[in-house]
Specification:
5 helices, globular
Length: 384
């Protein structure tokens, strides 16, 4: 009788586990969805240190041709990645920011770094708006609050595109990653007339549950030419391509879609600049500049040369060959010598954009698993 009773208890426990696991898997599959393509984004204005206005309530501010400007891009890693942080999907042990205070401190440090760079345009990725991993802090509001001190006397136009919305991830079991919403934010000292969210292709297998809603945003900025008349637009793209995929090829497909979009805009007479986290080795062989790592990874492949076939768009990989600095580290543990580092953050430009300089800002990964990158450029005047 005792053996039967024990077996009955074991069977009940197993059945309960099957029901719980099955119910959770059903929840994940049922909850899965993607945002629709070509969503119009709302453009706002942060005016003189914190007054929020609708875009239509502020006079137009346009960049001019023949003038040097600066654009910066920064993946802020949802405010979790201090230089001693290791993420569970990269081989580390942590799944959330260590505290709400850590999120505030990391984003504050990231914004101060950007402010010191004095960019006219900023592209920021991995901005959580409501996440278990970031203690449900709306990081878009935090960015605005911190940026207001750096743009206290000017206007800052911005838009936000969501590119991540995951169901509750019950892993690691001791501290689940949870449910998270995040996106990309574009900031401009010039007027953004309109903005659009474009959905990117993603893998169709199980990895789609780790790679939800990938997209890029398209922000349109009117341009004044050297003679004072409005010419065409600066079309600004903010991107964050896929990382946690089976072999990295989907990021190439995503890049190809973006390149074709930019080529069409250029052929229509517009200036085009894209920037962000490509999750590709933009230097082709980063180890040649930064040394080989103690562990080999394959998630960031070089961009296949044929990706650029048929387009005139050029890749700008930030690099000072005399003193090279990587833009990203693999967060398998605290930042250390021999860790896998490379450059995955950079820019794309159309032929009518002259690149003056591009480099990586060396923060020693204090505030993110990425370093910010910047590019100085000139919009070339049209010949008359």
């Amino acid at each position: 009788m005792k053996v039967k009773k024990i077996l009955k208890i074991v069977l009940c426990v197993v059945l309960a586990l099957v029901i719980v696991v099955g119910g959770y898997l059903a929840y994940v599959f049922i909850d899965y969805h993607r945002l629709s393509d070509r969503q119009e984004l709302t453009v706002h204005v942060l005016y003189k240190g914190g007054v929020l206005l609708d875009n239509d309530d502020y006079p137009t501010i346009e960049p001019a041709t023949g003038t040097r400007y600066r654009i910066a891009s920064y993946n802020i890693g949802f405010g979790a990645y201090s230089d001693d942080y290791g993420f569970f999907m990269d081989g580390g042990t942590e799944s959330r920011a260590r505290s709400a205070e850590a999120v505030v401190a990391n984003i504050g440090g990231a914004v101060d770094t950007l402010g010191a760079c004095s960019p006219d345009l900023m592209l920021i990725q991995e901005v959580d708006t409501d996440g278990t991993r970031s203690y449900h802090i709306d990081e878009s509001e935090l960015l605005l609050e911190d940026l207001s001190t750096h743009f206290a006397e000017t206007a800052l136009f911005y838009d936000f595109a969501q590119n991540y919305d995951s169901p509750y991830l019950m892993y690691p079991l001791t501290s689940p990653h949870g449910a998270n919403k995040a996106g990309i934010m574009t900031f401009s000292s010039f007027s953004i007339d309109s903005a659009l969210r474009r959905s990117l292709p993603i893998e169709t297998g199980f990895t789609k549950f780790l790679d939800l809603d990938r997209c890029y945003s398209v922000s349109r900025i009117p341009v004044t030419n050297a003679y004072g008349a409005q010419a065409d637009e600066l079309v600004l793209y903010n991107l964050h391509l896929s990382a946690y995929t089976s072999d990295g090829t989907i990021a190439t497909e995503q890049l190809r879609m973006l390149l074709e979009d930019m080529q069409n805009e250029y052929e229509n007479g517009n200036y085009c600049i894209a920037g962000g986290d490509f999750n590709k080795d933009l230097l082709g062989d980063s180890a040649a500049y930064f040394g080989a790592s103690d562990i080999e990874y394959t998630w960031a492949q070089p961009i296949p040369p044929e990706t650029f076939d048929g387009v005139e768009i050029q890749l700008v990989a930030p690099l000072d060959e005399a003193s090279p600095v990587p833009s990203c580290r693999n967060a398998d543990g605290p930042y250390h010598e021999g860790q896998y580092v490379l450059t995955v953050d950079g820019f794309l430009v159309s032929p009518n954009v002259q690149v003056i300089e591009s480099n990586v800002i060396d923060t020693q990964f204090r505030y993110s698993d990425h370093n910010p990158v910047y590019m100085d450029f000139v919009l070339m005047p049209y010949k008359t």
